[in-house]
């Protein structure tokens, strides 16, 4: 829909349609990447494109896409890397910025005071598992998803979610049976 509006040179409708996808498909970084790409095609929208691209780093990173090129696009649009950077350099710069975001979130978490700000152990486990998956996604071609299964499962087991642990790591399910 957004591309159709762009082809008709209707900037406002194009941007509204692209931004609406972020709300309709919440939690997916690929919609923010698309929005950043659309914004970057209009004059005087580079700061908005940067912010939309950086928003991808607050979403589950595997939802950015499946290729290094997609991750590099986030880094370039987010003004973290240059177009001329190779994939490895762009991924390294993305990793540095990602870790800064995680540090900021940890700092905010340590100062949380109200019940609304404090997360349940289960929500903490989900966040911890997502961080493990995010870091694996940032390894690019060196990602060995099989290796992270047991770590993610351990996070879920720690909070009593053996159902999730067994889903993530079915081979680890035999460990649960031997503990009973």
> What share of residues are in beta strands?
under 5%
Strand runs, count: 0
Shape: globular
Mean pLDDT: 88
Taken in chain order, the helices and strands follow as HHHHHHHHHH
In oligomeric terms, what are we looking at? single chain
| Main beta sheet strand tally, sense and closure | none
Low-confidence stretches: 176-180
Structural class: mainly alpha
Which bin fits the share of residues in helices?
Answer: 55-70%
The number of helical runs is 10
Q: What's the Cα radius of gyration?
A: 19 Å
- Report how far apart the termini are: 54 Å
Walk me through what this model shows.
By secondary structure, the chain is an all-alpha fold. It has a domain at 1-84. 67% of the residues lie in helices and 0% in strands. It has 10 helices and no strands. Residues 176-180 have low confidence and may be disordered. InterPro entries: PAB.
Give the key terms.
10 helices; 180 residues; disordered C terminus; PAB; mainly alpha
């Amino acid at each position: 829909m957004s591309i159709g509006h762009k082809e008709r040179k209707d900037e406002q409708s194009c941007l509204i349609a692209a931004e609406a996808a972020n709300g309709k498909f919440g939690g997916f970084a690929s919609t923010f990447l698309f929005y950043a790409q659309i914004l970057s095609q209009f004059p005087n929208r580079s700061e908005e494109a940067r912010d939309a691209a950086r928003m991808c780093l607050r979403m589950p990173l595997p939802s950015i896409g499946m290729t290094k090129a997609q991750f590099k696009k986030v880094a370039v649009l987010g003004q973290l890397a240059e177009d001329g950077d190779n994939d490895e350099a762009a991924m390294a710069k993305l990793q540095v910025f990602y870790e800064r975001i995680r540090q900021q979130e940890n700092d905010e978490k340590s100062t949380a005071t109200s019940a609304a700000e404090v997360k349940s152990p289960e929500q903490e486990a989900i966040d911890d598992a997502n961080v493990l998956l995010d870091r694996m996604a940032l390894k690019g071609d060196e990602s060995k998803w099989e290796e992270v299964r047991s770590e993610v499962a351990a996070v879920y087991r720690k909070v009593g979610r053996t159902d999730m642990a067994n889903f993530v790591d079915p081979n680890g399910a035999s460990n649960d049976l031997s503990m009973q």
